[in-house]
Specification:
heterodimer; A: alpha/beta; Rossmann fold; B: 125 residues; alpha+beta; two-stranded antiparallel ribbon; 4 helices; 6 strands; 23% strand; globular; binds guanosine-5'-triphosphate; binds magnesium ion
Chain lengths: 218, 125
């Protein structure tokens, strides 16, 4: 690319006019590390915290939005509103909270009820985002209905998806499996916990979410 | 909900039947069957937008001791080929298996096969 390549010219325009602004939803099944990753992004770029993290699924039951997070990648940058969404599931069994995580019956039922409302909210938000950072647990099978449904909805609307293959600090993680499962989208292996490869994720976020794909007519 | 003595119904639903329904009718039909303890195999699955609505409606209908949700596995919409795009053919969703989460367990899924198991008496009763 020459000095006045299209890429650099448009990025100059965008910097002058500050036009780039994207609403990015952090999506995925419960417990994959969405909030941990959101906290890392905010810590690195704003110094804030998004929300609480837990080993018990459905910790996030209300979507949270942090506005005006500027993420930089060399000479370009992107201003994002980042939404941490409740994990999407097709089933919620309060007994799992009791049997596996030792919650009382009352706590478990309350958590399950709130979790169903959280899933509904996540799906509603899907219509309002400009792009999705889809978080997957790279120690688990990626071919789940939730992942397929989220990706399908974004593809139908021609919006950009970036897949974060999280938890690669764990021994049994297999980010390569995720890459081969979704070859049509970029997959970035990361550890939200240790911060491993976060820089690489940020540069892909700026690149991927700066693409404003054509919206189909409404 | 499931009466063990009667066994478990696994119904194959043809494309023609699904095409008679509007999206709302289709989702209502599916959820009613599942809440009655049936497992369905849809010849023509749901579009991703329909899948998202189905998840949403499932969440609204969860009853903590009788209906804990659904298990659903299917394949995404087939990519339209260049020629199909020119001819204006729309993408078609593919085969989908769907049932109550306390009955139907997905064992394995890859791009060629979806393996499931029906395990009565598991999960919420
Ligand atoms: N080893 C490891 N654990 C992680 C990583 N990221 C998150 N976790 C752990 O995974 C669990 C779930 O993390 P959360 O950030 O709460 O997950 P979430 O996707 O927001 O979950 P919900 O809000 O319930 O949908 C916690 O115990 C985290 O400490 C990671 O990169 N590596
Ligand atoms: Mg969370």
């Amino acid at each position: 690319m020459g000095l006045f390549g299209i890429g650099s010219f448009s990025s100059i325009i965008q910097r002058i006019f500050g036009k780039k602004h994207a609403k990015i939803g952090i999506y995925g099944p419960p417990n994959v590390g969405k909030t941990t990753l959101a906290n890392r992004i905010l810590r690195d770029w704003t110094g804030d915290i998004m929300g609480s993290v837990s080993e018990i699924p459905h910790e996030t039951r209300v979507a949270k939005c942090k506005k005006n997070v500027r993420v930089e990648n060399g000479s370009s940058s992107l201003m994002m509103d980042i939404i941490d969404t409740p994990g999407i599931a097709t089933k919620i069994d309060y007994k799992e909270f009791m049997n596996t995580f030792g919650l009382s019956r009352e706590e478990a039922k309350k958590r399950a009820k709130e979790a169903t409302e959280g899933v509904i909210e996540s799906i509603r938000w899907l219509e309002n985002v400009d792009g999705v950072l889809l978080v997957m647990d790279s120690t688990q099978d990626p071919f789940t209905q939730v992942n397929v449904t989220i990706i399908g909805n974004l593809e139908a609307r021609n919006l950009p998806v970036l897949i974060a293959a999280n938890k690669i600090d764990m021994e049994d993680s297999s980010p390569a499996t995720l890459k081969s499962a979704f070859p049509q989208h970029p997959v970035i292996p990361v550890s939200a916990l240790t911060g491993y490869n976060a820089e690489n994720l940020y540069s892909h976020m700026v690149k991927q979410f700066s693409k404003r794909k054509r919206r189909r007519g409404r | 909900m499931v009466n063990k003595d009667k066994g478990i119904s696994v119904n194959l639903v043809s494309r023609q039947k699904l095409e008679e329904f509007s999206t709302d009718e289709k989702l209502e039909f599916i959820l009613n069957e599942i809440r009655n303890g049936k497992v369905l195999v849809l010849e023509n699955g749901l579009t991703s937008v329909e899948q998202a609505s189905l998840i949403q409606q499932t969440m609204e209908k969860i009853e903590q001791d009788t209906f804990i949700g659904i298990e659903m596995e299917g394949y995404g919409e087939e990519k339209a080929s260049f020629l199909q795009k020119i001819l204006g053919k729309i993408k078609k969703p593919r085969m989908t298996v769907i049932g109550p989460a306390d009955l139907l367990k997905t064992v394995r899924k890859d791009s060629n096969m979806i393996q499931t198991r029906i395990i009565p008496g598991r999960g919420a009763r």
